[in-house]
From TrEMBL:
Keywords: Cell membrane, Membrane, Transmembrane, Transmembrane helix. One of its GO terms (cellular component) is plasma membrane. The lineage of its organism: Bacteria, Pseudomonadati, Pseudomonadota, Betaproteobacteria, Burkholderiales. GO terms for molecular function: transmembrane transporter activity. It is found in: Cell membrane. InterPro entries: ABC_transp_permease. It is a multi-pass membrane protein. Its main location: membrane. The chain crosses the membrane at residues 6-26, 33-54, 60-82, 89-108, 141-158, 188-207, 213-232, 239-255, 267-284. It comes from the Bacteria. This is ABC transporter permease.
């Protein structure tokens, strides 16, 4: 039973990486912007956060550095696609390639570095409950903050005027512009906020989830996070559930190996990506359902005054 508790705990840990990035991309897409550069943003933020912890000794400084790096790269992406009207898909792919190369270059001297002693977190009393305690109440604070962020995002999107404006920009930027809303600035703010969350995801990956730095350590998680937004039909609660689902699939390979199940490691390594393809294929069988939930202006440029 202890092994199952550890599997559940590691699922929450792995799912947090995906959930943070997917929530950031969800904010982008609610404003009508598709950012294919999540993989590159997460890689740059991972090395920024890892290096910040090495030099400062503080995990929270590392998280701040990761969010800052993510927000900066997202701001550059936003300026290109929102003000200069470059193609969103091509620019996002370029950002992803840039992030992979730059992070590899910047991280050369950090490959052998080790982080300071890791702090342990546990709720008093609750953390000592057999099975439940290790599974639920000994997680890093970021895990709980991610769950709170989902609740906060739901409230923001569907219970506040600012959230309504953001969704209206994603549905019909022309109508929002006609009503006097600064569409471009709103989209840029959404892109920067989304980039900061992707940055936090990358920093969490390098500081808590691994914790180390190696080239290409994001290993496709940015693409899975991008797929999660479609899987969740652009709903924050479904993003969280989907992230835990894919996190569980990822951790299952290690659980099976630990229990002595004779399955080729190559097959286990491809499980998360196979699951992504299967889920997207199943969702694509009902295109009407996607159209109903997808922001109408997603991926489309906006030209004020036209």
């Amino acid at each position: 039973m202890e092994s199952y508790a550890l599997l559940f705990a590691s699922t929450l840990n792995a799912g947090t990486v995906l959930a943070l990035a997917a929530l950031g991309l969800l904010i982008n897409e609610k404003a009508g912007i598709v950012n294919l550069g999540a993989e590159g943003i997460m890689l740059c933020s991972a090395i920024a956060g890892f290096a910040a912890v090495i030099h400062s000794g503080s995990d929270w400084v590392g998280f701040a550095a990761g969010m800052g790096a993510g927000a900066l790269l997202a701001a550059i992406f936003g300026l290109l696609v929102i003000w200069l009207n470059t193609n969103q898909y091509a620019t996002g792919l370029a950002l992803s390639l840039f992030g992979a190369g730059f992070s590899a270059f910047a991280g050369i001297k950090y490959v052998q570095e080790k982080l300071p002693e890791r702090a342990s977190y546990a709720f008093p009393v609750l953390g000592d409950i057999p099975l439940v305690g290790p599974a639920l109440f000994r997680q890093h604070p970021i895990v709980y903050l991610t769950i709170a962020a989902v609740a906060g995002l739901i409230w923001f999107l569907y219970r506040t005027r600012a959230g309504l404006v953001l969704r209206s920009v994603g549905e019909s930027p022309e109508s929002a512009h006609a009503l006097g809303y600064p569409v471009r600035r709103i989209r840029l703010l959404a892109v920067v906020a989304g980039g900061a969350l992707c940055g936090l995801s990358g920093a969490y990956l390098a500081i808590v989830y691994t914790p180390l730095w190696v080239e290409g350590m994001v290993a496709g998680k940015g693409w899975i996070a991008l797929a999660l937004t479609t899987f969740a039909t652009w709903r924050p609660a479904r993003v969280l559930l989907g992230a835990y689902l894919f996190g569980g699939v990822t951790m299952l390979q290690f659980h099976l190996q630990g229990t002595g199940v004779d399955v080729p490691s190559e097959f286990l390594n491809m499980l998360p990506y196979v699951a992504t393809i299967v889920v997207l294929a199943l969702i694509s069988r009902n295109p009407a359902w996607i159209r109903v939930n997808m922001p109408a202006s997603l991926g489309k440029p906006f030209y004020p005054g036209t």
